[in-house]
Design brief:
The chain has a 7-stranded parallel sheet with strand order 3-2-1-4-5-6-7, sandwiched between helices. By secondary structure, it is α/β, with parallel strands linked by helices. α2 packs across α8. It is globular and about 45 Å long. The protein has 8 helices and 7 strands; from the N terminus they run αβαβαβαβαβαβααβ. It has one domain: Rossmann fold.
Length: 260
């Protein structure tokens, strides 16, 4: 096996990636991986200081140009501002990752307020719609590119305590397939559908209870580590997936669609 030839399939040298929710969790791991593969970056997230810290760390480690940008996915105009910033600074975007998301807690469905419902839909679905439409159109008119949405197994296996989030992520799955048709053949659009990952969000979990459930409901019997999203992200971002579009790849240890 020629290791260099294999690695070349995943090479992002000369490419520009925009990652929303890129300052922590899965987004940060994807941002690091893209820079390590040769890409320059825009790391966009709600808190600018987190973006600045992540950008400085990645740039120091890889030598790639990495710019922070304060971005609220629920703000329609913020998507326009982010797209304009990326093209102004780099002149192109080759990879867009819609990773920003939120799933607020509630005790029962009738206590879900209109404001909470709207915020969940805006951040998880409306933001990716607007940003992908803007950048996807420019990609299609230029040299093409790859758009990656980040969904959730809640989209296909919802539980009562996350229904607005699950509804939004199910919409994101549908959006992925439709956008692949809208901007093909020059733009590929694919979706990563994660299960339970042990990122900072897991700090709020009862880990003893989680591990007990995982032993019987997850074939791999554990939660995912953030770095385990990297292979899928590099595959979708690079030429390795040149004939893949409209795909939804679950990365969940086998927890969705359990047997029995």
């Amino acid at each position: 096996m020629d290791a260099q030839k294999t690695a070349a399939h995943f090479d992002l040298t000369g490419k520009v990636a925009v990652v929303t929710g890129g300052s922590r969790g899965l987004g940060l791991e994807m941002s690091r991986a893209f820079a390590e593969a040769g890409a320059d970056l825009v790391i966009a997230s709600r808190k600018l200081d987190g973006c600045e810290k992540a950008a400085a760390e990645i740039s120091a480690a890889t030598g790639r140009r990495c710019l922070p940008f304060a971005y609220h996915a629920g703000d329609w105009d913020a998507s326009d501002a982010l797209a304009d910033f990326a093209y102004r600074e780099f002149g192109r975007v080759d990879v867009l990752v819609n990773n920003a998301g939120m799933s607020p807690l509630y005790d029962k469905l009738t206590n879900v307020t209109e404001a909470l419902y709207d915020k969940v839909m805006q951040v998880n679905l409306r933001g990716p719609f607007r940003l992908s439409s803007l950048i996807g159109e420019r990609m299609a008119a230029g040299e093409g590119g790859s758009i990656i949405t980040v969904s959730s197994i809640a989209a296909v296996q919802p539980t009562p305590n996350e229904l607005p989030y699950a509804m939004a992520k199910a919409g994101l799955n549908a959006f992925t397939k439709g956008l692949a048709r809208a901007y093909g053949p020059r733009v590929r659009v694919n979706c990563i559908m994660p299960g339970p990952f042990l990122t900072d969000i897991a700090k709020a979990w009862d880990m003893d209870a989680f591990n007990q459930r995982a032993a019987t409901t997850i074939p791999l019997q554990r939660g995912g580590e953030a770095h385990e999203v990297v292979g899928a992200a590099l595959y979708f971002a690079s030429a390795a997936s040149s004939y893949t579009t409209g795909a939804i790849l679950k990365i969940d240890g086998g927890s969705a669609f359990p047997a029995g």
